[in-house]
Amino acid sequence: MSVRVLRAADRTPVPWKNGGGLTREVAAAPEGADGFDWRVSLADVTADGPFSVFPGIDRTLTVVEGPGMDLVVGGEHHIVDEPLWPHDFPGDRPTDGFLLGGPVVNLNVMYRRGRTRAETAVVCGTVRLMAPPGGAVLALSLDDGAVLDGTGTRTGDTDAQADGTDLRLDRYDAVLAQGASPGVLRTMGQAVVVTFSDV
After folding, report:
1. Cα-Cα-Cα-Cα dihedral sign, residues 106, 146, 6, 132
2. Residues whose CB is less than 8 angstroms from the CB of residue 36 and which lie 6 or more positions away in sequence, other chains included
3. pLDDT tens figures, 116-148
4. Quick one: which of 86, 59, 57, 198 has its CA closest to 132?
5. pTM of the predicted structure, to 2 decimals
6. E strands, 66-156, where?
7. Is 183 exposed, middle or buried (0-12, 13-18, 19+ CB in 10 A)?
């Protein structure tokens, strides 16, 4: 079992693939590989413009801050103005994003078609996190003060305890688990939970 806590403060902004903005990677697998099976990131969008094209990749976009976007995917308009509503689209079709009323922060989930399946859900309150066999589960807190119960062994974070104590997650902190359940996440508001499984 592997459980990692991924702190928002540790993320370094990097340019988009097309140079049109900045993104902060939350997690990816395989880690450090040229090609990923899946990737989760947060992006600050402050202006209209094209999205990067990712051949063979499917995407789920969730607006976590701001009024929303008009996504034009392959010439079709998709109004993404419902708060915290995941929206799926193919990452290899030409896509442009137009802000509906100001800057937004998007949570982007990308996964390789035919190899990985990703299910994205926004949850409220308490949820037991479960990684499917051979897969992974990632939960990203949208508010300060979420608590992950003391189940399991955690690595990669100085706050992570293996002695059964609870672990606090603040806004945009995440926990990533592979091979088992990391326990129960109790949010003060909402969290985004992404489950990855093999096709």
Report:
1. negative
2. 28, 29, 30, 110, 112
3. 999 999 999 999 999 999 999 999 999 999 999
4. 198
5. 0.90
6. 69-73, 76-80, 87-90, 95-99, 104-112, 116-129, 136-141, 146-148
7. buried
